[in-house]
Description:
globular; 3 domains; single chain; 306 residues; alpha+beta; 20% strand; Endonuclease, Chain A; 3-stranded antiparallel sheet; 11 helices
Amino acid sequence: MTANLHLPGDLFTRADLDALEMSDGQLRRAIRDRQVRPVVRGVFVRYDVPDSLELRLDAVAHNLAPGQVVCDRTAAWLHGVDMFGLAEHAILPRVESASSTGVRASKAAAVRGRSRALLPSDIVELNGLRVTTPLRTALDLACNLHRRDALAALDLFRRLHGIGAEEIDTELPRFRRRRGVIQARGLTRLIDGRAESVRESWVRLALVDAGLPLPNVQVWVDRDGVPTYRLDLAYQAQRVAVEYDGEPFHSSPDARERDRRRREWLRDQGWTVVVVRNGDFSGPALDRWIGRVREALDAQYCNLRW
C-alpha cells in the first residue's frame, strides 16, 4: 500500500504530480494498490470516487483543445455504449476526437485526432463538451468498427437511444463515398435493441453469416403456463435455443448450477440448447456450434420417411 499520499477528490494528471508531492512511481503503485484509477488515458481520480457521466466528461475535457469534438468510441462511451475491448480497459485507449472545419486535428499524446466533416446537427453539447450525437456516433461506428462490433454498437444504440434502421437509412446517403458505408447499409436490417450484450450480437451475426435463419431475441419459455426461462436467441418452432455464456454472469458455482438445471428442463421438453462461450467465434470452435445449430434445425425441417 502506498502510504502518505495526499490524494485530491477531483481529477488530476501527471502534470499535477509535483503539486501533489507524488512521483510517477508512486502514482503507478497507487494504481496497482487501487488507491487511484485512470478515467481516460492520462487523467486519474481517487479510487473511491464513483463513476459518473460528469466525471467522464471532465476527464475527456482535460485532453481536448477548443474546437475539438469527441467522436467514435469515446463518444459512444459517454452516451452509455461501451465498445472498448477488454484489453483496452486495462490500458486505456486515447480519446477519439474530430476537428471541425478549419481546425487542425489534435496532436496531443492522449488524443487520437482526425478531421471529419460534421454538420451542426451532428454535435450535442454535454456539460460544455462537444460530442457527436447518438445518431452520428452510431453511424460512424457502423462504418468504422469491425462488422460484428458494428452490429453490437447499433444494437446498443437502439436499446439505449431508440435509434433504428429507419434513422440510419435516412442518414446513410450522406456517407455514400465513405469507407465502411456498404457494411453499415448491410447491417441495418439486423439491428435489434433487445440484445443484452455485445457477444449476443456477435452470435446472432454468426448465425446469419452461416446462412441460417435470423433467430428471435430474448424469447420467454413458459413452465406450467408461466413465462419462466428467457433464452438469448431461439427458433421457437424448431425448439432450438442458442445462448452465450459470458463473464461474469455465468461463472459462479451458483450460476452454473442454475444454468444446468434450466437447460436440463429445456432439453426434457424437447429443446436443443447450443451454448456459445468466449473463444467460440472463429476457427473449428465456430464451425462446431454452427454445425450443431444447423443439424438441429435440419432435423426439425425434414418430414421425409426413410
